[in-house]
Design goal:
The protein is of the alpha+beta class. The chain has eight helices and 25 strands. Strands 1, 15, 17, 18, 20 and 21 form a six-stranded mixed β-sheet that branches. Strands 11, 12, 13, 14, 16 and 19 form a six-stranded antiparallel β-sheet that branches.
Length: 485
């Protein structure tokens, strides 16, 4: 029984985040030996991509990978290699796979990955793994492999992810977010030809992780042929109506007496906020008697749009759907759910206070396009609150109007000394764009000074090695003001 839980003139860097990699694995058998596959999913936005062949539109990342396999403290196998991503037009995710032949035993796996374009950006992963092995005369099943997608293989051009006539894309983190409408999984059955009885496979999804007595959500059962030593088995289940939560896939081989002869299980997590919202809305009919009862029906879209900056990441898709096709009740429920999740006892008061600020920002920053709270300055203000310090500059001859905001601390993340730079290159009313920020997840632009002063007649950024700074001439105060705040 198997369970898995688990060059141009300037330098361009597209990443400000720590290197993030999903590492998963699965164990299989062939007619001679047991082997383990390790799957690596590299998150593109956390890697540093550089231009390729002097074309800024083509970028590529590169990493160095070290894999150590230890048994009883001794290294019994390893691999060290450099890997380049495919060439992309924009930083994107990519995958890799490595296989090791491992006999029965207990192992410790250590993996270290370094971004070769930023040696300080590293990723480390450690895990214990038990290889139980496969016996030649007994019905058995491989680990379950979760897949993001699967297509028929091109026999003329197989890849490292091709197997049994299919090419797989591995599901990173064993996590199925809302875009996934079905769960795909692959496993292999062994030694069916050694058994003369009629065998059956039961497969499906149960609630909770392996080890907990979760109810079956989906279950299928069918006869399987006993004619082959190795039988690949690819399955898919519709999960459009699977609520967010913890689950596991099960694959069980049974005899005609429903006795389990071999089984494999794999945990996964599901995030399905749209379906959760629909279920919650339909089961909470009393919400319309709350603070949302007094809301002006004609302003519901306005209210919902004002909440974009503070909505949870998993609710953004729900918000967009509600704005596009939602009923008045669904829009009210969105507002109700947001504030009752924050503080059920004071939801109405918090909503009123928040909308007072949003209304003020709408008037203060309105540019004639959308609402004032939808501008970059309005969004940042609602998301992070009033800045601790703020400087407005309108009289520098070498630059358009700009503002620098500083926050002593961002409460949600604990970041300190966070700064934002806004500028108005078009000189239109209130048309300020976010130029640069030191806040995680917001726009990071190391060349913000050259962008701010690009129209300065005396500036020639082509002479700069990295083109991220400008000469410290009179009338160019942005860097000094930025550093002093």
């Amino acid at each position: 029984m198997k369970n898995i839980t688990l060059f141009l003139i300037f330098f361009i860097s597209y990443s400000l985040n720590a290197l993030d990699v999903s590492v998963t694995h699965a164990t299989f058998n062939n007619d001679k030996e047991t082997y383990v596959e390790y799957y690596f999913h590299y998150v593109g936005k956390t890697l540093n991509f550089l231009p390729v062949n002097e074309k800024i539109t083509n970028v590529q990342a590169a990493v160095e990978v070290l894999i150590l396999i230890k048994k009883q403290g001794a290294i019994i196998d390893y691999d060290k290699y450099k890997l380049s991503s495919p060439v992309f037009t924009t930083p994107s995710d990519f995958q890799d796979i490595k296989r090791f032949v491992l006999p029965k035993g207990d192992y410790v796996i250590e993996i270290e990955i370094v971004d070769l374009n930023n040696l300080e950006s590293t990723f480390k992963w450690n895990g214990k793994q038990n290889i139980s092995g496969f016996q030649n005369q007994i019905v058995d099943v491989s680990d379950v492999q979760l897949l993001a997608s699967v297509v028929q293989s091109d026999e003329t051009a197989p890849t490292a992810f091709s197997k049994s006539g299919f090419t797989f894309e591995i599901l990173p983190y064993d996590f199925l977010h809302e875009k996934y409408k079905q769960i795909n999984f692959y496993s292999e059955f062994y030694n069916l030809d050694k058994n003369e009885d009629q065998l059956y496979v039961s497969y499906g999804v149960r609630k909770d992780f392996v080890g907990k007595k979760g109810d079956e959500v989906y279950i299928r059962s069918k006869k399987i042929k006993n004619s082959e030593q190795i039988v690949p088995y690819l399955s898919a289940l519709d999960i459009k109506e699977l609520k967010s939560g913890n689950y596991h896939v099960f694959v069980e081989i049974k005899n005609r007496n429903k006795e389990i002869l071999a089984a494999a299980y794999r945990d996964f997590q599901r995030s399905n906020p749209g379906y959760d919202f629909e279920i919650s809305l339909n089961s909470n009919g009393d919400f319309e008697d709350s603070f949302v009862k007094k809301l002006d029906q004609s302003k519901l879209d306005y209210y919902v749009r004002a909440h974009m900056p503070i909505a949870r990441a998993d609710m953004i898709s729900v918000m967009n759907s509600v704005l596009k096709d939602g009923s008045a009740a669904s829009k009210k429920y969105f507002l109700y759910k947001h504030w009752t999740d924050v503080n059920e006892a004071h939801a109405g008061t918090l909503f009123d206070k928040y909308m007072e600020v949003a209304d003020a920002l709408d008037k203060m920053y309105n540019s004639g396009f959308g609402y004032g709270f939808e501008t970059d300055r309005g969004y940042i203000y609602l998301r992070y609150g009033r800045p601790s310090q703020q400087i407005e500059v309108t009289d520098e001859p070498s630059a358009p109007p700009y503002e620098i905001w500083a926050y002593d601390v961002i409460p949600d993340t604990g970041e300190t000394n966070v700064k934002f730079v806004f500028y108005n290159p078009t000189l239109q009313h209130n048309a300020f764009d976010l130029l640069h920020s030191t806040c995680r997840g917001e726009r990071f632009n190391p060349a913000w000074e050259t962008e701010l002063y690009k129209n300065a007649t005396t500036e020639d950024t082509r002479r700069s090695i990295d083109a991220t700074t400008v000469q410290d001439n009179m009338g160019r105060n942005a860097r000094r003001l930025f550093d002093e705040l």
